[in-house]
Amino acid sequence: MTYRDSFNTLRTQFDLPAMTIHLKENDIEIHRCTFRSANSLMLPGAAKYRCEEHGKEFCEDLESRIHGRVQSYPNALKHGDIDILENKEFTYSLFKKAEPARSKKVILLFHGLNEHSWHKYLPWAKILVERTGKTVVLFPIAFHMNRIPAEWGQSRPMNAVSCIRRGQSPVIVNSSFANAAISARIEMIPQRFFWSGLQTFEDVVDLIDGIKKGEHPLIDPDASIDVFAYSIGSFLSEILMMANPHEYFSESKLFIFCGGPTLDRMSPNSKFILDSDATIALYSFYTERLEAELRLDRRIAHYFSGAHPVGGAFSMLLSYQKNKEMREQRFRELQNQLRAVALKKDDVIPANEVLNTLKGDYRDIGVTVDVMDFPYLYTHINPFPDEVALEKLVDDSFNEVFERVAEHLA
């Protein structure tokens, strides 16, 4: 079956409402599993917070500061993050061989920024199962995929938001209905990037906790855990590997596709990712004004202080120049566990920045990074286009990438 055939067949099957879908031609099953996040209380939307680990309390009301600005937006964007039910109770999908009943080898698959559909990733998950025999878990990042209110992905209300943003900022670039919700939210409260990432980090830890305790019906308690990550999912995965919570990732391997550099070396300004105003707000907070912002925001400063390993790992990946020695030392320790493929014409995650971050200025970090260039017009958003005229070329490129992935993760 070609990549294009697989893509079109899988998305039709995946959209069925069943909790279990059988792909009879290759003995693969797709299961939908329910998850309830216990980590939403860290999100913006409350007035008081407490770090139980260190007994510290924080007074904070980020959303009150944007009350005036948010009034022009539809009601779906006015809810406090802490109250959004879809982000707390959701399903994730799991691709596995029909036998054994409980998998002993698992690959966590993490997606890109501002994505609402798993369709692109379905052939990726399927080929990973076929070539490694491992179960693949498609786990959504907070406020992405099915962890968002439906209205955030609907063209009519989000076109209205885009119109508001263009009216407020005549020089805005790449504002669209596709990125309106995330752009408005990030621009108003850039801290959301950290808190939603931290919620996802803790959700992944809780998922593995449940597996280790024997609570997962489809995964063995002693199962190995590896990771395949794309785009911003690579940023999350690097943090998981560097922080290594409960030593869950000590033996894990991570394969990075179109990801890997520090935040300041990415270019997310795109109609499909972030508009220019949100990109500026994000970079301004985390790279240009971070020290000043940490003096104002005591809670996020606590996490960045070294008190929490996740905050330390996150801060090491914000700026290429800052914390460089610590970051590169950590990557040297992980060099045999990491591998990456970057694309030469990727303008969101430039290949040279993947090399710089993962291998260092002097290329003295032993992470294998392959720079590939497909023989057709591709983008970061769509590396494997679903076009009849390109079917053979896309097939060859897709297989070439995933041969490398399977070699590393098998």
What is the residue-mean pLDDT, rounded to a whole number? 95
- What is the CA-based Rg, rounded? 21 Å
Class per helix and strand makeup: alpha/beta
CATH classification class: Alpha Beta
Fourth-tier CATH superfamily name: Alpha/Beta hydrolase fold, catalytic domain
- How helical, in percent, are the residues? 40-55%
Q: How does the overall form come out from the CA principal axes?
A: globular
Task: Fill in the keyword field for this structure.
410 residues, alpha/beta, Rossmann fold, two-stranded antiparallel sheet, 40% helix
Describe this structure in words.
The protein has 410 residues and is an alpha/beta fold. The chain has a single domain, classed as Rossmann fold (3-Layer(aba) Sandwich), CATH 3.40.50. Helices cover 40% and strands 17% of the residues. It has a nine-stranded mixed β-sheet with strand order 1-2-5-7-6-8-9-10-11, with helices on both faces. It has a two-stranded antiparallel sheet with strand order 3-4. Helix 11 crosses helix 12. The radius of gyration is 21 Å and the shape is globular. The model has no long low-confidence stretch (mean pLDDT 95).
Which helices and strands occur, and which strands form pairs?
Layout: H1 3-14, E1 20-23, E2 28-36, E3 48-51, E4 56-59, H2 67-70, H3 85-88, E5 89-97, E6 103-110, H4 122-132, E7 135-138, H5 155-168, H6 180-188, H7 192-212, E8 219-230, H8 232-243, E9 254-257, H9 276-288, H10 290-296, H11 298-307, H12 309-316, H13 324-334, E10 338-343, H14 351-359, E11 368-372, H15 391-409
Parallel strand pairs: 6-7, 6-8, 8-9, 9-10, 10-11
Antiparallel strand pairs: 1-2, 2-5, 3-4, 5-7
Helix pairs in contact: 4-15, 6-9, 8-12, 10-11, 11-12
